[in-house]
Amino acid sequence: MLEYRAEGLCRNANHLTEEELARCRQTAEVLQATALAFDTGRRLRFTLCGHRAYMEFEDCVDHAPGETVKDIAVLTRVGRPTCFVIVGTEREEGGETVYRLSRAEAQRRCRTEYLDALEFGSVIPCTVTHIESFGAFCDVGCGISALLPIDCLSVSRIASPADRVQVGQQLLCAVKSRDAQDRIVLTLRELLGTWSENAACFAAGETVVGIVRSVEEYGVFIEIAPNLAGLAEPDRQLRPGQAVSVYIKSILPDKMKIKLVVVNRNLNQPLRFEPHYFVTRGRIRRWTYSTPQSRKQIETVFG
Hints:
Elements: E1 11-12, H1 18-27, E2 31-34, E3 37-38, E4 44-48, E5 51-55, H2 71-75, E6 81-91, E7 97-102, H3 103-113, E8 123-132, E9 135-141, E10 144-149, E11 170-178, E12 184-187, H4 195-199, E13 207-216, E14 219-225, E15 228-232, E16 243-252, E17 257-264, E18 286-288, E19 299-301
Parallel strand pairs: 1-2, 5-7
Antiparallel strand pairs: 2-6, 3-4, 4-5, 6-7, 8-9, 8-11, 9-10, 11-12, 13-14, 13-16, 14-15, 16-17, 18-19
């Protein structure tokens, strides 16, 4: 199965010769270049190999029949890497070659040759494009967007997707489902390991860094890995998002509990754990986070 890259990661057309661009046109290879302007003719303007190149408005975004594309969806491409296929060339007065480009065609090919063939549970690369309170939107290929909901970012609860990811970050995710408009919904947490896999990276008696996630009357939940958190004694001086160092008092697989003691609450620096992947390719069919002994079962079954 072909794999189409996110915008910013496609082959750069400005590094190619005219002969190479001609071959890319014949093979319909997806390229990218920086959009230089959105002109008064409502076209995106580029320069390829010293020649002018244009993308007509209707070629800027693939959309469903009857759907209206707003100017803002196109003009915000200016100054950013934008993918396309070369759909033709023209000769202007003076004999100058002008390239005609289509991002919409690149997106249609991405859907039919790549995204439509993905099964639930398939592991794919993506790039975070923007963040909302309810989740992160990711480019899964050629600027096509998919939602990564906040509750799918990790088992450990977070207040905002920005606690886990940032714009421009490249991720691996699994295809969780499709929404009513047939758009892909992503999940990350199943790639970040089970309770046992994460707990095996730590040992009782160690002191490690952690992030406060929840302050309750009965204790403080502190994340020590994206899919693993422990409980420390109540401490009203702590706040969610605060970086601390903690002593691991005990690890209890049968109860899926880790007992922590806060050693230093004044680290005074932001902390965000980078994803540590336990799955990096293929397809996940069933994922069980919980230990066999635990009464609480956390599981994902992909359709």
